Amino acid sequence: MTFSLDLHVADRDVSLHLDVAAGETVAILGPNGAGKSTLLGTIAGLVTPDSGRCELNGTVLFDLPGAGRGPRTWRAPHQRGVSLLAQEALLFPHLSVLDNVAFGPRSAGAPSGRARQIATHWLREVDAEQLAARRPAELSGGQAQRIAVARALASDPGLLLLDEPLAALDISVAPTVRRMLRRVLAGRSALIVTHDVLDAYTLADRVVIVEGGRIVDQGTPAEVFDRPRSAFAAGLAGLNLLTGVRRGTTLITADAAAPVANIPEPGVADGAPLSLAVRPGAVSVSIDPPADSQLSSVRAELIDLEPRGDFVRARSAVLAADVSPKEAAQLDAAVGSPVWFSFAAAAATLYPTVPSDRTTSS
Amino acid sequence: MTVPRWVFAVAGLGAVFVLLPLVAMALRVNWTEFVPLISSESSVAALLLSLRTSLAATALCVVFGVPMALVLARTDFWGQKVLRSLVLLPLVLPPVVGGIALLYTFGRRGLLGQTFGLLGIEIAFSTTAVVIAQTFVALPFLVLSLEGALRTVGSRYEAVGATLGASPTTVLRRITLPLVLPAVLSGAVLSFARALGEFGATLTFAGSLQGTTRTLPLEIYLQRETDPDTAVALSLVLVVVAVVIVSLAHRTGEPSRRRARALS
């Protein structure tokens, strides 16, 4: 393991532990205000937590045991070997592109010629060698972010932190920068904060979901998004998530108001906690009970119908379903009254609701 | 916004109020005698002394003012607001009062003057005193304009520099100072202008000895009694120097605005 972090911020109720293995890229996802950017700031040394401990490649970045409980260690940002790449490129406006990228090596003591050599190498890595002589003001957003990536990598960080690196980019440039990031992040220890499932799938070896100051789920992107354990991850993956316990062929949800009948063979014992994930597109809505007895179904109040481009989302407290505008028109009178949501067994994923640490070791 | 017409009228009145006295003075200039008047021995001595002391004072303002502005803009400590008001006090203080305060600090019987006296250094009524008085009144101009510029630039570039491995001194040298260089220059120009025009504190603290402490403003004040033509001619010289300086300050201030636009 190259990186480990224990973090506690009492007044924000943050308490989490995070490891990054050598060469591993970990994506951190979570709702707004979950403290993801603060987490990165803490690792970079720009924000001081109440207490915690952080280590990178055997060097203690900080060790804050809490007030009155032993000596406090705090390593200054420039001595950490941690580079932070933000949403905005923040290229130094008074330096050329080449000198921006050479800044890290120069600060590490490399002679000017050698620093420029390193900078040229990294500019080539991000396909921006031809921009070397330009000023940051003469770059587009996508170009500037490429240079920022090269600049962060040229300082040879032990850990690279990326804070929503694609969020501020034009939708037409983001894919190219994402591909470039995938290439340069391969085999490199990195933490990336993102809101985008695609970023997690393409860039990360492991996904960590942070909610309410705690890690609520982690695993490979496929594990976390195919079998979500948090409403947040299910929402990102575009899935309905139902949790409850199995009673025969029925899933009794926590509030017990809407049992899901006729669930497929779940592979867990009767009475065991069970999760069920299903895409809204695979769910149908009908006013009468479904004719096909093979379908899983649940009766719930239709809360509203929300147009979303070429389909309409029918929502209940339990499940959401995507229906065609024609079907939606037929359902319009039923809004506010109970209807049947049904789906084929094959469309759903059932899995035991495992306790919090399904992938502690990675 | 469309400016209402009456605003133009009032603004015009204000402009006349500023410009008319200058015109009135220019009208009184004895043009035929102008060159001999400003090139008399005492005039040249006063002009050279003024330039020399003002340049020295400007250098001191930069040396002390840049660190002061950095501390005020980039750190947070108890009593900082009070300290800022005190540092800026010379801006609002009557210069004569400043001169008296300096006299009781560096004068023969002053707080530090006695110590300097024991070392055989006499500060009051010397050219050094002129520089000290000018620095005292001009320092806030540099601190104020630079602190504002530092806050506008913000510390995000500095944070990036630190995470790239640059020590605080490297960050200051390669990021902070280059970014606020236009503000340092325009602040220095303003300080120079203020030092050049300094009168009250200089007269109180340094006296009026030709060639040693009698700067151009003091010379003008002295000549006004006996030789109004010289006073007017020298005043015009001072106005021209001031106009040149103000336009210089405007020009050096411009790149920072251009940079701000590029950033937004």
UniProtKB/TrEMBL annotation, chain A:
Residues 7-237 form the ABC transporter domain. InterPro entries: AAA+_ATPase, ABC_SmlMolc_Importer, ABC_transporter-like_ATP-bd, ABC_transporter-like_CS, Mo/tungstate-bd_C_term_dom, P-loop_NTPase. It comes from the Bacteria. Pfam families: ABC_tran (PF00005). Coiled coil: none annotated. The keyword rRNA processing does not apply. SUPFAM superfamilies: MOP-like, P-loop containing nucleoside triphosphate hydrolases. Gene3D superfamilies: P-loop containing nucleotide triphosphate hydrolases. Keywords: ATP-binding, Nucleotide-binding, Transport. GO terms for molecular function: ATP binding; ATP hydrolysis activity. PROSITE patterns: ABC_TRANSPORTER_1, ABC_TRANSPORTER_2. This is Molybdenum ABC transporter ATP-binding protein. It comes from Cryobacterium zongtaii.
TrEMBL record, chain B:
It is found in: Cell membrane. Keywords: Cell membrane, Membrane, Molybdenum, Transmembrane, Transmembrane helix, Transport. SUPFAM superfamilies: MetI-like. Coiled coil: none annotated. The chain crosses the membrane at residues 7-27, 47-73, 85-106, 118-146, 175-196, 231-249. One of its GO terms (cellular component) is plasma membrane. Residues 47-249 form the ABC transmembrane type-1 domain. It is a multi-pass membrane protein. InterPro entries: MetI-like (IPR000515), MetI-like_sf (IPR035906), ModB_ABC (IPR011867), NifC_ABC_porter (IPR006469). GO terms for molecular function: molybdate ion transmembrane transporter activity. Its main location: membrane. Belongs to the binding-protein-dependent transport system permease family. CysTW subfamily. Part of the binding-protein-dependent transport system for molybdenum; probably responsible for the translocation of the substrate across the membrane. PANTHER family: MOLYBDENUM TRANSPORT SYSTEM PERMEASE PROTEIN MODB. This is Molybdenum transport system permease. It comes from Cryobacterium zongtaii.
